[in-house]
User: What shape does this take?
Amino acid sequence: MNLQSVKSPLSFIEHLLDPDAAAILRDYESSWRTEGMSISEAVDRAGTPHLRMFDQIGERVDEILFPPDYWKMLRKGYETGALWRAFEGNSLKMHYLIDYVTCFFDAGLACPYIVSLSTTVPLMKYGSADLRDKFLPHLLRRDGSNLQGATWMTEVKGGSDLGANVETVARHVDGERWLLNGEKYFASNVGAELAIVAARPEGAPQTPQGLALFLVPRRGEDGHLNYFIRRLKPKIGTRSVPTGEVELRDSEAYLLGKTEWGIYLILESLNLSRVGNIVGSVALAQRALADALTFAEQRVAFGKPIVEHPLMRRQFDERLTLLREARALMWEAIQLLDEVWQECPRDLSDPKSGYSDRYHLFRLVTHLAKYWTAELAVQFAKWNMEIHGGMGVLSEYAAERWLREAMILPIWEGTPHRQMLDGLEVMERKRAHEMLFEHLAPHASPDDVELMNSRISEHLSLSTEEKEAAIEPLFRDLALFTGRALAAKDDF
Assistant: This one.
């Protein structure tokens, strides 16, 4: 693969696409280059968007204020098909490919697309017919005027231990209608017209199994504000998506699925966003490598462009190899998700229902990819800053922005600790590593597969405390092994 291909998101992923998808994304990338890049830079420099809590006569409005051009670019992605194409074509691939191009230019702007998908999918799968008829047509408009979604699980005590830390309480009113009371501390895409929210029905246990998933509209049946924004978060990066603190005060909500399915539906939605995080990480790593290459071609030291110096050139080649492996991991996660995203939890009344082995394979690949690609993005962004030297630390240039943006990626949708522990769980309980090795067998050395399998078997024989304490080196090596094996099957 030519190193120059990293300068365009489409060029780097074009081998994954059919001609129609390539044409759509070519137009989309062109719109970013002609006007989107300047809009994105202006929004980032403006800092955190503003919250207007009241109108001039004192009515609570909780309106998020952005520059007008922000909405132009956001709607461009929705028009291109960031949401509606997934349901028209019954495939999530195009959604994530649009995300990839978006994230190359602005990782924050892709977040509304990702969480809107993570809202729409559970509504489609688990909402009642009346609920789907009421909201789905408005989410899936094709002209950019669609409703947006959001996914609000985390509260002030943290997001990893949802079973213990979710204190939002749901009180049943009638039918599928409930009232929610509580607070959400990290509410991305705050201001969205719809949100899926984790809450605990009254009397339910303080465990993950005590949670349920609800759909919360921005406005109630009579038009009143149905949730309130306390403040917006001043973040180091991703300024193009507003993140706030939300108060739920007798907020009208609708149960999705069954109460006892709540934790599974929450994890399904989380995994949709987690794949989006993987996409954003690889795209941002590519952008950092592309910017480093452009600068290194122009910067002259000791009589020639610095990219022509042997050590520098070797560093670029090594990072291109890592990026190819990250791309292969990303694409595998997308393809596996596309196979299993319509599966549902087990229904005790139907012993044949439940998640398939492929679903658990998807889970392991996603944990590995999220763990590895997020850190890769940070390291690429840091290295890009080093390539730029003193210019890299100045906020007037882009290198410092990519590092700011990258630092959020290991945190979003579960920290590295969470990926390792969840990956360990799916290996131990579902033997997902055995499925993974069978999946990789055509593309990896049998000796290498046997060695890795032996390491995992030995690790799983340890005590519970030792298994957790010692998982990181093994998990890191398994992620690298998987990326290399998947990259080896590409013929480009």
Q: What stands out?
A: The mean pLDDT is 95.
